[in-house]
Write a structure and sequence with these properties.
Elements: E1 17-18, E2 29-37, H1 47-56, E3 62-70, E4 87-93, E5 121-125, H2 126-136, H3 140-157, H4 174-179, H5 189-203
Parallel strand pairs: 2-3, 2-4, 4-5
Antiparallel strand pairs: 1-2
Length: 205
């Protein structure tokens, strides 16, 4: 049984700030991601999901800087401000899964402005991620991290297309989730290279 990919993206401008490194190596680039955690999903031990997502992008020398925005009132700055030109955003929301559900279940929605090649917002439905992890008998934090990495891939590539294999493939089966093969959960070299080129072009503007 195949399951659709997860994602949501909304168009807007984005800009990345370069990090400073020494030596004759590819310079790392900081990408700021504002994380709206409406239900405190990634607090505590679930911080491991963010670490996994960030690690997936290390092959492109991209360093994710998380700004976690918990569901508290009043919301502290900068979480209460409009997204800046140097920020991406991911929101994690709840979407209950019916008892005994066995069919295809979208884990999210996708919208990319392909005309302007911009994308800054992704949405993940945590209950659906947790459901798939349970169905596959795997760790929910690991699957959540992979879901976040997949969404970041769409944001950084500014595309709603998918790859034939790897982390950016369009659908994930229970067997694939259960096996946890490195090949299934890594970006393809061409995808990493495209992300790097896109970030470099934005930084040089």
């Amino acid at each position: 049984m195949r399951l659709p990919h997860l994602l949501a993206v909304v168009s807007a401008a984005m800009l990345f700030q370069p990090s400073h490194v020494s030596g004759a190596v590819t310079g790392w680039t900081d990408v700021v991601v504002r994380l709206y955690d409406a239900n405190s999903v990634v607090r505590g031990t679930n911080g491991a999901a963010l670490d996994l997502a960030a690690k997936a992008l290390s092959g492109a020398s991209i360093d994710i800087v998380w700004r976690v925005c918990p569901n508290v009132r009043p919301i502290a700055a900068p979480c209460d401000l409009p997204l800046g030109p140097d920020e991406l955003a991911i929101r994690i929301v709840r979407s209950e899964v019916p008892d005994g559900y066995r069919g295809l279940l979208p884990l999210g929605d996708a919208l990319v402005d392909t005309r302007s090649a911009t994308a800054v917002l992704a949405t993940i439905y945590f209950d659906r991620v947790r459901w798939l992890a349970s169905q596959a008998g795997t760790d929910v934090q690991t699957l959540l991290g992979r879901a976040i990495a997949h969404e970041l891939g769409h944001l950084l590539l500014a595309t709603n297309t998918h790859g034939p294999v790897g982390l950016m493939r369009a659908s994930w089966s229970r067997d694939e989730v259960r096996r946890g093969s490195t090949r299934d959960w890594s970006f393809m070299p061409s995808e990493l290279a495209s992300m790097r080129r896109r970030v470099d072009a934005l930084v040089s503007r």
